[in-house]
Amino acid sequence: MSHLSSPPKKHKGEHKGHNPPRGSERGSSSRDKDRSATVSSSVPMPAGGKGSRSSSTPQRVPNRLIHEKSPYLLQHAYNPVDWYPWGQEAFDKARKENKPIFLSVGYSTCHWCHMMEEESFQNEEIGRLLSEDFVSVKVDREERPDVDKVYMTFVQATSSGGGWPMNVWLTPNLQPFVGGTYFPPEDGLTRVGFRTVLLRIREQWKQNKNALLENSQRVTTALLARSEISMGDRQLPPSAATMNSRCFQQLDEGYDEEYGGFAEAPKFPTPVILSFLFSYWLSHRLTQDGSRAQQMALHTLKMMANGGIRDHVGQGFHRYSTDRQWHVPHFEKMLYDQAQLAVAYSQAFQISGDEFYSDVAKDILQYVTRSLSHRSGGFYSAEDADSPPERGMRPKEGAYYVWTANEVQQLLPEPVLGATEPLTSGQLFMKHYGLTEAGNISSSQDPKGELQGQNVLTVRYSLELTAARFGLDVEGVRTLLNTGLEKLFQARKHRPKPHLDSKMLAAWNGLMVSGYAVTGAVLGQDRLINYATNGAKFLKRHMFDVASGRLMRTCYTSSGGTVEHSNPPCWGFLEDYAFVVRGLLDLYEASQESAWLEWALRLQDTQDRLFWDSQGGGYFCSEAELGAGLPLRLKDDQDGAEPSANSVSAHNLLRLHGFTGHKDWMDKCVCLLTAFSERMRRVPVALPEMVRALSAQQQTLKQIVICGDRQAKDTKALVQCVHSIYIPNKVLILADGDPSSFLSRQLPFLSTLRRLEDQATAYVCENQACSMPITDPCELRKLLHP
């Protein structure tokens, strides 16, 4: 594993790692250059001896993790380690026995988490060290994002980066004093092994415990000051025009003209950046910069869709590309990527009218429906990158997704009639998708040699060029390629599948409700809106506690397919509320069913009660009680692989104000944006979704009101007209004429708007003034899209 000795550095705060080598997991770059363990204590640590790694197979005697529901914790249930889940039992033991806590954080589809589990946590000798000299605690970062964020802040502040697995040593009072990411089991030429680190820390705890405790307190105090986000003396947020311009310029400077995206390698989808660029284009569309923003976003989406980061055989997108060309991915598939990219491709279709983008959006949702959906309407978290090439073999990354030239030629041997040269379907397929006899994955991207001779499908030519190359018509080539993809898909079904993380998270389910609702609305497909509705029903039935009004963070799938919960339940975090509220608002606009809007308002009230910082402004990531004992209570300040929950909340507050007219939500939005002023001023590109919210707050929100019967054709025609246009800063309201309806009670002015000649009628309202009544969808389009 010497290829990991010096990966590029990871920028502080990057979410889920934005620059590991192929196969490394979400930015574990703090393991490079002897940084596998970073000791924040100034006390020198004595060297530990090097022992031989146990070659024993994993014990089949379970530890206490066997009683957990998390797929990640269950993966460690047979380690010879006395693991504890995060909780009071572990903390009490550490205090009673005066032992440091070893905290290990990961998630079930994490490649390097699997590696460390196999190399170290299955090792008998290392297991004894962890069990005898430490209180060892395992955490699924997706179950407890608050724990993950607090200690990742420490690791990033005291080392060259962060990522997963994250391994941190804590005092019995939960204050960190040593941190790192992946550790090899034994010492190497440039890195300290995990066994050595354990021996050193054990010795330091015995000999210099007071110095470690004092230093830990100093680091914690410094982190508290550094992580504070507050309004301070500021009364108003910064200028949206200035922040917009600076954010765009920073993105423009890092843009890859040839392949799209915003880094050399690795490259991440970052839908929040694409969303910002679309919004920037809309407000600057008559300028050169506006055209440039649109081109950057559309080109990036097209190159991603043609690249190997997209699963051309089974649909959906992989986590990231290990190269500049979007060619060789890290093969893990995450629900939150599918959700956000479905929206991004739908918006690209709204803006460009090019069905290429709408086809990609539909493909993403086809994958989610088939592979990540529970029968009751919920959505699973992820599919692993690793799987056995054949049954009984050791899992390898990408084995499920790659192809040899011989496999493709055997599956597609039919001659292609009418070609200018002898040609089989397999040869045509290989040419179009860039497959070669030797494989199209370079050795530099395959340091362990697992993908030798294999190919990742990537679209190398347009249909027109492929057709011209062989003298064929375009539609004929399209049919041949689609037939080929279907045959590969059927053949792939016989391969061992990657592990499915069947845990269901409220936050990611909320994002997926948005994905289906927005795409269904834009494309006018009720079937997709129905999937969004079923997702929302699942959230309300299985992840909402009626008595307390609170969301639950997680639920799980039993072996029989029924939905289970942990006991006690894992309650929701800020992102769960923010993403679910966004999903419900998107679902209301797509379906015009006001029950979803009513629930969104109730959840926003609960979010405000549990997370709002009444002194400094903005929302904390976790409840005060749930995070009791943690050294920090943070506010997430980065839009990364997922948007910051504060950024999403700013948008939600603006929309809720538009739906209800309640001034307190607008006031909260202004306070939130003011609290994050310094963060936006310093690095606006780290918060593109919040900069977008800032722009929306300082512009005028459109209230588009359709007066009509929800099921009537003329009403649907006006609604579909609105959905076909990219208008991010608006709320769409259906006024059915019932003065006792929920929205009529919220917005009394709706009762003054009338249908014209008993036809469905649209009004566009801004600043408490409404347009003349419009009954023709074409006239409405002209007004909304001049």
TrEMBL record:
Compositional bias annotation for Basic residues = 8-19
- Record's GO cellular component terms: extracellular region
Task: Give the matching SUPFAM superfamilies.
Answer: Six-hairpin glycosidases, Thioredoxin-like
- Localization (cell): Secreted
Show the ranges annotated as biased composition (Basic and acidic residues): 23-36
Q: Name one Pfam family in it.
A: Thioredox_DsbH
The segment(s) forming the Spermatogenesis-associated protein 20-like TRX domain are: 62-223
Q: What is this protein called?
A: Spermatogenesis-associated protein 20
Query: Its encoding gene is what?
Result: SPATA20
